[in-house]
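User: I'm curious what two different proteins look like when written out as structure tokens. Can you demonstrate?

Assistant: Sure. I'll show them one after the other, since each token string lines up with its own sequence. Here's the first protein:
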Amino acid sequence: MLAPAPAPQAAPAAANPADDDAIAIIGMAGRFPGAGDLERFWQVLRDGEETISFFTEEELVAAGVPAEQAARPDYVRARPVLDDVAMFDAEFFGYNPREARLLDPQQRLFLECCWEALESAGYGDGDRPRSVAVYGGANISTYIRKLYEDPETAASVNEYQVVISNDKDALTTNVSYRFNLSGPSLGVQTFCSTSLVATHLAARALLAGECDMALAGGVSVRVPDRVGHVFQEGGMESPDGHVRTFDAAARGSIFGDGSAVVLLKRLSRALADGDPVAAVIRGSAVNNDGSLKVGFTAPSVRGQAEVISRALTDAGVHPAEVSYVEAHGTATELGDPIEMSALGRAFAGAPAGNCRVGSVKTNLGHLDRAAGATGLIKTVLALQHRQLPPSLHYTTPNPEIDFENGPFRVNTELTPWESPAGRPRIAGINSLGMGGTNVHVVLQEAPPQRAGSPGRDVQVLTLSARSREALDAAGRELARHLRRNPRLPLADVAFTLQVGRQRFDERRALVVRGTEDALRALENGADDGYQRRERLRERPVGYHFPGAAAWYPGAAAGLYRTEEAFRTAVDGCREVLRPLLGTDVLELITGAAGGGGGGGGPRRGWRRRRCSPRSTRWPPCSPGGGCAPTRCAARG
């Protein structure tokens, strides 16, 4: 039972989240049971869905489970699984069909998630080497057994080929090689706490200056995937396929498949570079229980409490400032009380009922090596939406947990995440590994981002893909993103598309004025805009200058008003020319004294002449008569 919390102490003011020792999460990606992307993942969390799959005996037998085992009364016909786990765009990642066939699905998924995390942060251009580290871990490869079950495959490959495609040591180095990343690349293996330990190590590498950015996460996929398990009383797995964390009826979790990756960067650098900061890691800590426990697989109150306290100290955060904890949540009769007892010790001094607690495992099961990063991404999404998702299947508290007198309350319904007394929202993420490696991360909501510059009136949106169909899909996805984020500065979107994306053969460019114009062009399909197939990456730029007759006063007003580099250069030239000419040339350039002109066409004293519709030198005039000064150069 938890001891009553001591009298609350005054919480200190929150430290400045922009300190140079804070770490920004600038990109995220994941594959989860029932959720193939983060948008769907948030819907699952927000709506309190359970996405664990339940199978019929026929489905299990078809997947290879012996009929007599599938019919056993203690065989639990449930498991969290991913959709389309066998799908993989081998050519996109530089694999030939034979190499792709040998590649463990865990390696495939981790590659995809690392790519998406880089893309989501605007760092998808892999043409140049980048100082990006990779920290991650995978489950033991069960796919390798399937390879050797096929006589043709077993006879045609050597052990070296199989190892580099399936060994856990190749998980991160494979990403570094495929994406041209030059930072440290390390495999992390601590069982269930793997991906959050990887996040801790990645943050430390950033603080030590070993890399500019770092990918961190984990993946777990077992083959075959559509199978169940035999329930064992007192074991770690659920008797009915449901996960009842903190509940009196909790008797185990259920292990499944998933992948989760985050991209990290020092907060000061991320803010200076204008990166999309999703949340801030204020501090973290990792330790091991040692031998002071009943067995190798048993948890330890002392070890867990120590790592939580060290993480809070590292973050400079008082327990009273933390308003949510994403718990490991094993849903076992022993594990839940020990975890909550450890949290209670570390949070001594926090007011009763001050902090909500939940576990993503109640939604989608235990994702093994990806579990910690999955809880981290859940908490980041909750901070972004300022809502706490419900923890499922909680009706009666575990009698060994004293929620009544402690600082924690299980969050059982979608709840607004209020900012405590105007302070930033702060959360903790707990992850525990079999064998005793514990890790805790202190997370804070992102600081306010500086407003993006509106930029020039006209923007160029560039898209590229490996096929025409993929190019059209990219356009539709961009349109969806703009509709979901109508206030997103289009200049920022254009910049990211131009410098933060890798260029492929199928390319499309759209010249648009504002978001509505962009939506019209993107949703109109491939008939709008400039489109072609082009393999060249570094095409030289050519400049074409019109004849002298094209100039008129005010012609550069738009450039002077919207382009800072042009305006700076012109102002420098004005200062040089003023003593030489005895006048300011700004009126001639912008069409109005003081530079306020809008470029409305030729000024008084300039005569117009009508162009001949048959002229080969000048474009014909508009049917309405008179010249269109922005399109016609026929001026005397």
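Here's a second, unrelated protein for contrast:
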Amino acid sequence: MTTTLTRGAAGRAPERRGLAGGFVLLAGLVVIIAAVGIWHLTQGTSGLTAADLFRGLLGEPVHVGGVSVDAVFLGSRLPRLFAGIAVGFSLGVAGALLQSVTRNPLASPDTLAITSGSYFALAAVAAFNVSVPFWASSGVAFFGGVLAAALVLGLTGSAAGSANTRLILAGSAISMALSAGTAMLLILFKESTKGLFAWGNGSLAQLNIDASVRAAPLIAVVLTLALLFSRRLDALGLGDDAAASLGVSVRSTRMTAVICAVLLTSTSVTLAGPIGFVGLGGPVLARLLANRVAALRKHAFLIPASGLLGALLILLADALLRAALTPEGATTIPTGIPTAFIGGIIIIVLAMRLRDAGSARVASSASSIRIHRRFVTVLVIVASLLIAAIVVGMLAGNVWLRLGDLSLWAQSSAPDLVRRALDERAARVAAALVGGAALALAGTIVQGTTRNPLAEPSLLGISAGAGVGAVFVVTTGFAGGGRLPLVVMAVLAALATFALVTLLSWRGGLLPDRFVLIGIGCGFALTAVTTFMLLSSDPWQTPRILTWLSGTTYGRSFWDALPGAAVLALAVPFFASQHRELDLLSVDDDTPRLLGIRLERTRLWVLTIAAVLAAVSVVAVGVVGFVGLVAPHFARTLVGARHARVIPVAMLLGALLVLVADTLGRTLISPAQLPAGLMVALVGAPYFVWLLRRSRG
């Protein structure tokens, strides 16, 4: 009996040491946060030094520029610090809960579109001038976030064990659609929502400390509830069947964790706007530390550690940003920009460590559509619709013209006012046609080559890279900032992004899932870089930059369509001659090799041309999403899977989609205009949702 007691005591000793290590780690994180918080308090635009602040807190009357230390400390710096801690802690805990219930290391409030859903709900309330108190605004944000999370988790087939690529694709697409809807509200109701534009990238600036104080009890209650469920979450990590055998209600545990995560996310969005990827970074760092501190494998320690690391991340990002740019220079740069950049890098690192689970596949309903007559019929119908859309696009605008005006313009005998209107519209129509066709062709190639029918250029970071190149030229005045440098840099940046994604993905071959995830991570990081350049540049350049980034043909000339037309003239014959190879690449890796095709080299060449097509589309129509997804899928539904038929139909459909979106955008609220990219996103997102729903399982 003595031996048994001795063995039991010896067995409990490592457990006690592990628990002690967990408490030491939590205490250490608190100390580090306190140190960073003190540094954070010394930063500001008032001119107070750390010594002034210290003397003022000791009771000495210190004034700088007629402002007392107490006013600065209580009115600006302490509220900003508390907001950073509250937001970071909330997002860190939310991310840990979401990763646990989905058993997916890439799950977070951002990748599940919770942040975008909360922001959209708040923007909708502001747009319609609904005045609500703080607690009610948190409820509005919660409602939007929980709907977005339910949609994403529902589309991935189940709430747990979802494939990494599928989850991130669903979250990214829903987030893009919600962001487009939010941007639409900001444009349509600019007087009611003007304060939300800068806030939309996440800002810790606070009017006073009241908001953080009111949020603290809710955060504490949700944290307590999450800790009470920690043992259930531990069991859930063993699998649904194992957890159920231990008496854990899997469904209620998962639902409670998701609701807690959405509550925390909505609170953070209400406090500081949508600050991205803190909910990804905090839990990821905590799980990495679990390799050294065994206690973090238990949710009782993992949850608070994730929250503390989230708070540390956001305070460090804010402090480093203000230290690098000076507090005055950092006032125009929201805290969400550096955190989004860090989040993109985290996705890339995690994707490089993940095994490829196989591409998501969409069952084709066109297996019976093989006859040549059907292909010709579809081609004629789509071409006819495109011609009709071109005519309407020429006639529609602030002033609707007539066919007679168009005839006179074609004969160079139209009145001056009509001539100028049609010259402008013709350039916009040409840009829409070229941009839409290029995006559709690029999407067709990317989907077939990666064998991932849910991939497209805007989700692979290629469009974001081209946008960075264009914005760099505009903001720096590189090579005079003219049209040619902009085109060249957009193409080079897109190719550089593609090269980076390919290089990072190439480990044992270009695996489709890894390629897509790394592309998404690069897209997030590059979008943060673009936003940084936009906000830190000359504000007089902002309208021109937004022209390129919002997905619109506004201000385009025929020269903007020329690069895309030239690349299409070369790419279409090339892909037409390689259609059999493209068909084989879309089957599997073994069949092309058996038939003598050099798989990796062919795939690399094909994807490189797709990257160029995506780059020149940015020059023509800006950053437009979903065209490269919707057009190829719709084409396959109509004419089958063979590339010889898909390519021409997809190009016509892509051109038709962008042209119709642009025409609607410049006529629905004329004389104001809605960017074509937003219109396409609002149309493309429901189609994407349908595709994901159709491919469940």
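A detail about the second structure: Strands lie at 63-64, 67-68.
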